[in-house]
Write a structure and sequence with these properties.
Number of helices of chain B: 5
Strand order of the largest sheet of chain A: 5-4-3-6-7
Order of helices and strands of chain B: HHHHH
Largest sheet of chain A: 5 strands, antiparallel
Radius of gyration of chain B: 36 Å
Oligomer: heterodimer
Distance between the termini of chain A: 102 Å
Helix content of chain B: 55-70%
Mean pLDDT of chain B: 79
Shape of chain B: elongated
Mean pLDDT of chain A: 90
Number of strands of chain B: 0
Chain lengths: ~350, ~160
């Protein structure tokens, strides 16, 4: 079946839904990013299936009509200048009706299962958010709390639950699950960032990459070290991929992970914050350094965490090259200090442990 | 084909028979002394009588005589139809439940409005209406009990109401 006839087949399916808006979209063929791979099962084989289609279609038609009246109500309220929360409630009602009108459609559910979301339609917007809240968010929060990323980096009470999905992939690899162990050689180039948000307006975000376990010799402890800070990244529902080039506001250029030899497993956190005033503020010429603390940075610039992910890394021979080539220092090596010998006296001879001998 | 329950009954009777047979055989063996019992056990093992116990044979026959039930093999199209049917059934049940709930709530709210109107209209009648019978039994208003039943108990020739 060539592309033209497949397009025609799709438009026929669109007509079956009997909603003028989706009909217009299917004719325009601009809404779907990928062609739907759904093949409609044949009718006339199972009478229960034919009846099921009728039930779904009649319910869907009824909800579409209710959605149209809700749309009219919203338009009148907006024109007459009603209160903001009344308009918000009407918008929510309209969205719920639009979703309910199409959520029982087999083709919509099939496309959602394949990951083929047409984000111009409310039903796909709802299904995409539902998919994020299902397993990925739960896994992320489990890993983040289990590995103590949140209490160490930020106060969990301030963070709550991240509302956007941050997908990070190293160059030439697929998206890694939060908490997975990544070899230092794989992270030499800056990773590809995707933030899946669920708001229509474009907001500016700040991306940071922090090493939470950088050894701090002076105080014999660990501290945070910033590897990468990029500000004023625009994200919206339709724009989820980050384009980080010369034109972006890179406050700290990317430095690859360099877990020192002998230090325990390092956690490298990638966090995306929404900038002040609902994402409209810009961070021009912000004062940053590699040794600052995340809590201070966040409170100073009024940032709000919306997406988080992290990976873990440990030393191997490739890290020494990072120290020599990128950081221009000798690669350090940490280990236990030799313990003090308590059985040798000031004259260099062994102390007699027995008093009366 | 015998039902599962019937098969279970068959099993119990034959097993009981087996038990009886074994008991009869064991009774004289129990009377003998330890030496002869040991010899009898060795002989049983040698002859393979332990493995040829009739109860195991019966159980094997019952378990394996019938082919295990095959789940229906669905093609992708059939599976899609199945899912759609289940979704439609769920939707239908939800709609019915909502309709019944709305009906119930409408009836209750009508009752409430009626009581409020009566309270405004006539307080004495309102008080009487609020009184409840302490001894709650089958409501007499539903059907007055009669000693003699009617001549026509059920009209079999009446046409049922046709569906829309």
């Amino acid at each position: 079946m060539n592309a033209a006839s497949r397009a025609l087949a799709f438009s026929k399916v669109g007509r079956h839904i009997s909603d003028s808006r989706t009909l217009a979209l299917s004719h325009a063929q601009t809404a779907m990013r990928r062609q739907s791979t759904y093949t409609k099962p044949a009718t006339g084989v199972n009478p229960a299936y034919d009846e099921a289609l009728k039930v779904i279609k009649s319910y869907s038609a009824r909800r579409s009509i209710e959605a149209k009246t809700a749309e009219e109500e919203l338009r009148k309220a907006q024109e007459s200048g009603a209160e903001a929360d009344k308009i918000a409630a009407l918008k929510k009602r309209l969205f719920d009706l639009e979703v309910d009108a199409e959520i029982n459609d087999s083709e919509v559910l099939w496309n959602a299962r394949q990951g083929n979301y047409d984000l111009n339609r409310p039903v796909y917007q709802y299904l995409k958010e539902r998919e994020w809240l299902g397993r990925p968010l739960k896994v992320l929060m489990q890993r983040v709390l289990q590995m103590f990323v949140l209490p160490d980096m930020l106060d969990p009470r301030d963070v709550g639950t991240p509302e956007s999905q941050l997908n990070v992939s190293m160059q030439g690899s697929s998206v890694f699950e939060p908490g997975s162990i990544v070899g230092p050689a794989a992270a030499l180039q800056q990773p590809e960032i995707e933030l899946v948000t669920f708001h229509d307006d474009t907001r500016h975000h700040t991306l940071i990459m922090v090493d939470l376990d950088e050894p701090f010799e002076e105080q014999q402890t660990f501290r945070e070290q910033f590897h990468w800070v990029v500000a004023d990244l625009p994200f919206s529902r339709m724009q989820s991929r980050a384009v980080i080039d010369e034109k972006s506001n890179v406050l700290l250029p990317y430095i690859p992970p360099h877990p020192a030899k002998g230090s325990p497993m390092h956690r490298y956190v990638l966090a995306v914050f929404e900038q002040g005033e609902g994402g409209q503020e810009k961070l021009e010429g912000a004062d940053v350094s590699r040794d600052m603390v995340v809590r201070d940075f966040v409170s100073q610039h009024k940032l709000r965490l919306v997406g988080i992910s992290f990976f873990r890394s440990i030393w191997n021979e490739s890290v020494d090259d990072v120290y020599r080539n990128v950081l221009k220092t000798d690669p350090p090596s940490f280990g236990p200090m030799p313990s003090e010998r308590k059985d040798i006296g000031p004259d260099g001879r062994k102390i007699n442990p027995f008093e009366n001998y | 084909m015998s039902s599962g329950f019937g098969r279970a009954i068959c099993l119990s009777t034959t097993v009981r028979a087996g038990f009886i047979g074994r008991a009869a055989a064991a009774a004289p063996a129990a009377a003998k002394d330890k030496q002869s019992r040991k010899a009898a056990a060795i002989a049983r093992g040698a002859s393979g009588q332990i493995n040829s116990d009739s109860r195991y044979e019966i159980m094997k026959q019952i378990m394996y005589q019938q082919e295990p039930r095959q789940l229906p093999e669905l093609t992708a199209e059939d599976a899609e139809r199945h899912e759609t049917i289940l979704r439609a059934v769920k939707l239908h049940r939800l709609q019915e439940s909502n309709r019944r709930r709305d009906e119930r709530e409408a009836k209750f709210s009508a009752m409430e409005k009626a009581y409020a109107a009566l309270e405004k209209l006539d307080p004495r009648l309102f008080e009487e209406a609020c009184k409840k019978d302490a001894n709650v039994t089958f409501p007499r208003q539903m059907r007055v009990p009669t000693e003699t039943p009617p001549t026509v108990i059920w009209d079999y020739m009446e046409e049922t109401v046709t569906k829309k």
